[in-house]
Design brief:
Pfam families: SR1P. The chain contains 1 helix and 3 strands, in the order βββα. By secondary structure, the chain is α+β, with helices and mostly antiparallel strands. It has one domain (2-34). A 3-stranded mixed sheet has the order 2-1-3, with no helix packed on it. Strand 1 and strand 2 (12-16) form a beta hairpin. The protein starts with a strand and ends in a 7-residue tail after the last helix. The structure holds zinc ion. Residues 6, 8-9, 11, 27-28, 30-31 line the site of zinc ion.
Length: 41
Amino acid sequence: MGTIVCQTCDATIAHFEDEKVTTLYGKCCKCNSDETAEEEE
Ligand SMILES: [Zn+2]
């Protein structure tokens, strides 16, 4: 099973079917909307 995790707040965004355990990083809705407010690095 694969998991999509928010790279900013570590919240689990979604799960998807996969043969192996996979973790992908993305941004949740909350962090996407905050993107213009502050940007780290
Ligand atoms: Zn987030």
